[in-house]
Known about the structure:
6-stranded mixed β-sheet, globular, 7-stranded mixed β-sheet, binds nicotinamide-adenine-dinucleotide, alpha/beta, about 40% helix, 2 domains
Amino acid sequence: MDRLDxxxxxxxxxxxxxREELERIDPTTEEPTGILVMADAHDAGLAVDSAxxxxxGFSRTSRRERIDLLHALADAVAARAGAxxxxxxxxxxxxxxxxxWRAGLAAGNFRLAARLLEDFAFExxxxxxxxxxxxxxxxxxIVPWNSVYNAISVKLAGAxxxxxxxxxxxxxxxxLQNQLFAECLDAAGMxxxxxxxxxxxxxxxxEALTGHPDVRKISFTGSNAxxxxxxxxxxxxxxxxxxELGGKAPTVVLDDADLADAAVKxxxxxxxxxxxxxxxxxxxxxxxxxxxxxxxxxxxxxSTIVTGDPREPGTTMGPLVNRRQFERVQGYIRMGLADGARxxxxxxxRPRGLDRGYFVRPTVFTDVTSDMTIAREEIFGPVLCVIxxxxxxxxxxxxxxxxxxxxxxxxxEDDRARAFARRIDAGRVAINGVAHDPEAPFGxxxxxxxxxxxxxxxxxxxxxxxxxxxx
Length: 471
Ligand code: NAD
């Protein structure tokens, strides 16, 4: 059993001042694997002090120095990709191949920011004035447990390119991944104080950081409830706030789609990352006349889902991250059944043959209406709702009938799907399958958040504009 008790502050690892311990559990076996000693408000204060002290120097570094730092970070995470992948599997149960792909995103995010920084315009003429973009100040990045390296690196890449110093508040459920990532930063030669990492409880460390008077930027990825509480609290001091929150993405299957292919895609879109993805397409909208055929196609396509030990090469579906998530998802499945939805595959309980580990049965419900709780709330597990529509207008209306607006998917003839994509209110719409573009903006409409990150948008997200007027 290993004990993780370090914070990374001012360029060195030191024992956390916090004393509260959290038992770390392998979600595949439910066996304890170690202890995380969580940071506390005192650690949070030290981390902000360190970032504030480093800001004066780092904000004046040259473009070239920051490009070199971003490349060094990319090299450091790429060199440790194997260890980062294994930690993801051990800590959170992601299937090996998916974990490897996600770990690889971090190096790409740093390299992309380095390339964009080469010719990023920090100064331009507008009317008779000079407009200067300057780093906003000390940034706090708060991230969840479900895609740790990508969430940390995409925010960091933008902040460092802009010239901000950062405190990362990583999730208490990813202690090992946080520790390894901090080691990468250190190995890359991070100047002291430019990036500081603390793991601890949100209501302790998170609150201390978001309420700190020296913090000028908060970039939060996580649940809607916490995001909204941060925004409410920010009204007192007006730090710049970016919120990347939850989703309930529609996967719209147009009536010219090949239903067998659409069913395979709909499952992949819904169940990636064991269904624990903010971008998961968890509402499949299908023309009413095609519902029965689509459900038959779903049953056939589900035979390729392999639930089990995420370390096994053939596994496509691992366990959920912890018991709380397991209970939560079981609760939603029960709620769906009680509301009259009918399972095409799955249902309550564990998959056959898996009597330990936080495994749930991949579940697809049909006979779902847009007003049911399972169609409205983010479940964050492998539960897909199939909803019937009459025509394209009706499909667009259902797609947008949600408090969220992070992502959407359209499956059908290419041009038609692209035209339909324009009717959906979501930050990203992917055509005919899962697609990732690290240069495209990422963020939500409506209650899925405020602001955009990734690529050049992540750099702009850490800048404040100043106009210099007159001769
Ligand atoms: P969460 O909101 O519980 O926690 C996210 C982070 O916030 C953690 O580090 C947590 O410790 C911290 N936190 C909790 N309370 C806090 C407080 N009062 N003040 C400051 N920080 C606090 O979310 P989670 O369960 O870790 O992650 C799942 C959620 O994240 C889902 O809703 C999912 O959709 C969302 N998510 C969104 C995106 C996106 O880019 N839009 C990406 C991944 C996950």
